Amino acid sequence: MAGLSEKPQALGIDQESAEANKNSSSNKKSVHNRLLEKDKEEGGQGGDMSPSAGSSIKRSGSRPQLDVSKAEIQGNVEEKYPTILLPNQSDDLSHLALDIGGSLIKLVYFSRHEDQSTDDKRKRSVKERLGLSNGNRRSFPILGGRLHFVKFETRKINECLDFINSKQLHRGGAESPYADGATDGNAIIKATGGGAYKYTDLFKERLGVSLDKEDEMDCLVAGANFLLKAIRHEAFTHMEGQKEFVQIDPNDLFPYLLVNIGSGVSMIKVDGDGKFERVSGTNVGGGTYWGLGRLLTKCKSFDELLELSQKGDNRTIDMLVGDIYGGLDYSKIGLSASTIASSFGKTISEKKELEDYRPEDISLSLLRMISYNIGQISYLNALRFGLKRIFFGGFFIRGHAYTMDTISFAVQFWSKGEAQAMFLRHEGFLGALGAFMSYEKHGLDDLMVHQLVERFPMGAPYTGGKIHGPPLGDLNEKASDRNSKYLISWMEKFLRKGTEITAPVPMTPAAGTTGLGGFDVPLSRGSSLRSDASALNVGVLHLVPTLDVFPLLEDPKTYEPNTIDLADPSELEYWFTILSEHLPDLVDKAVASEGRTDDAKRRGDAFARAFSAHLARLMEEPAAYGKLGLANLLEMREECLREFQFVDAYRSIKQRENEASLAVLPDLLMEIDSMDEETRLLTLIEGVLAANIFDWGSRACVDLYHKGTIIEIYRMSRNKMQRPWRVDDFDLFKERMLGTGDKKKPPHKRALLFVDNSGADIVLGMLPLARELLRRGTEVVLVANSLPALNDVTAMELPDIVAEAAKHCDTLRRAAEAGGLLVDAMINSSRSSKGKSSSVPLMVVENGCGSPCIDLRQVSSELAAAAKDADLIILEGMGRALHTNLNARFKCDALKVRSDCLLLLFCA
Ligand SMILES: Nc1ncnc2c1ncn2[C@@H]1O[C@H](COP(=O)(O)OP(=O)(O)OP(=O)(O)O)[C@@H](O)[C@H]1O
Ligand SMILES: CC(C)(CO)[C@@H](O)C(=O)NCCC(=O)O
Ligand SMILES: [Mn+2]
Q1: What CATH topology corresponds to 649-907?
Q2: What molecular function terms (GO) are annotated for this protein (predicted)?
Q3: What residues have CB less than 8 Å from 557, skipping those under 6 apart?
Q4: Whose CA is nearest to atom 21 of ligand 1?
């Protein structure tokens, strides 16, 4: 293979093609978007849950028992695992868990996911052909759902009760059939934290539910272990303003020290799942900062106090070594003049009263004192037990840079770099998550990294993400209506609130510095804090048990689906510009795709606003939503469109181009068939390169459309594909395909073709190549998106396209029949009958994504099954071949193709 370095620029792309390259990717969406396959088993309960087994209650007496009275099979009785409807089973009760602390109430709740895809014929035939059973899905009773994280102030517990009530979370969510029924009186919610005891009666009175108490330390540890094992890049270090995500090896996690900084602080030595000891604690914690800070500064909220600290200078409050030593260092014991000798030590001055100190300075001094103290005590406890890693959780941290830097500094300084402080993205939700996990039947702890996808709701953070109160509760007609189903959707709220929604404004950077420098003071001042709702920095966790790791990855552990490093500021800025500039065009297409109705225009406008706001937020703080890759960014755009109910912005464009390309396909096939083997192979590859040019993301392409018909453009670009290409492994590929001299190699057994765009790309590029492979006796699996992304062809659309193409070509027809793709056609066709077909099959599988990129750690189970017998992978297009998988290594032959940088990379 050619010696490629990591970045596409290193390919030596010239300006022109680099332009096209950049433009084109701007149009595509990114990775990660995992599709939730409709799963009929979800509603039904597996046999292992049978009530007659009598063993269903293990850990907790509150685990709901199944009520199977009036049970009936729903749908097709002949299905292997038909859905069983349990009309009297209120199994939804367990979809909420609480951690009621001294300061904050944390909620984790689950919502079912509405089906996005139907169990269509293609899926059924793929399942049969690939021998896909329903596998382990039944052991995940909550599959196809989402975990949400919300918090409230404990002193405003009524807002929390209203929220639960408005969403009917205590009865399984607003969509639950029990939602408007009478309270059954048996509702039980898992709860931890002191408030689970303190507020038992209140919950019973207000909501009619019983709180099932789970131990706070148990829950903290369960939550932390789950997050560290199951969420990619959950942990990060934070030193001198630099955030760095850390990938913890789940097999090398223990032992560690968990320090939960809530109102008070608990320090727990964790040795394994459920194996831990609370080894220390301190009553100088988050409550101390907030409480003392409130008294001393008159701040009205925690965030206000924190924000104030950013403008503070603690030298007016703290007594420094230099203050004591007349400006000198005390170097003999390693103390510089700027080291703080005594927190608040300067306030002993008799000449000054509280009013004489700036609240900003007080807040900073206090924050530093408490953070540093906690860091120091944590280090001492780590030292006591020889622990090297300390994870800090609890909402005192609040993602605040200065707090984290101070803690890290204390740990680093006192341990002389031996111990490491790490922070958790879900900082304050450990206990609530642990409580949620204590519902055994959820099977949450069996989920694996690749089955979880975190997404950031696009509109919601700007409407419902506030930490207190139900999302825009005031917009609901009447408080009493909150119980009813007439809740306004978040989008409606977004539209109504629209004028108030603007991109988040960066906080003013801290003025000056603490002036202390050196080893003893953190430099950063936490410019990332924001008191507006966008500070919501944990997303919604999508649980998708049907996702798998792509089995042909050579080493999933080292696989990195980001060719481009957005940590590079110029790269980041570049992509943000591309995305912003392309936005108006995208909105226009989206609105057009819905007939330009007023509603569509309103939504288009809202989409643009929401997406721009997120872009602005990320530009300012790239790690705001966790580790950011280009794939995430592109996917975010697609997700955002979907959230604003634009199902498929390119629908009509795709249709038009498919038709135009199909019309010229017979001519093209005839031309190809007149060639000898070698010329044909080259022409087909040139064809893929030429047809992949047809990309709505590329401005160059849009210009082309004005100049000619599809076939003309296709021929023209094919002629321009003069070898050698920039990366040209054609000879290698040819040798593998055709052999050299008399040495023929056996054909590949099965090829996976990761297809890209609709129109010419699939019809004139990939299908003719697929046909060649089929002719050579290679089974072909077309791998397409599960959800639309720009003009990418989807797995739903492909069977029809193949059926049309098959009308002009016997090879395709027989293969498609053999692959079960021509179900409808077969009914009308007298020629075909099952089993008769001698052809190797042509199949279509979905990839599990709705973005132009693909993260091969999280693909559909369909694709994973199809991959098992595959020995050739063909990846096409900017998103899949370049941005995400240029450096991916596979266990089998792989061909990576991208037109506008003339890339043909073959690894055997
Ligand atoms: N909006 C907020 N309101 C109040 N405190 C906040 C807020 N955001 C962050 N905090 C900080 O987080 C702390 C509470 O953290 P957390 O929710 O983890 O603890 P808790 O569970 O309430 O307390 P404990 O576990 O000691 O009972 C507060 O004491 C305060 O320092
Ligand atoms: C009492 C708890 C456990 C309640 O969450 C917490 O506030 C805490 O750990 N406080 C510190 C108590 C101590 O160990 O001094
Ligand atoms: Mn707590």
Answers
A1: Rossmann fold (3.40.50)
A2: ATP binding; hydrolase activity; metal ion binding; pantothenate kinase activity
A3: none
A4: 101
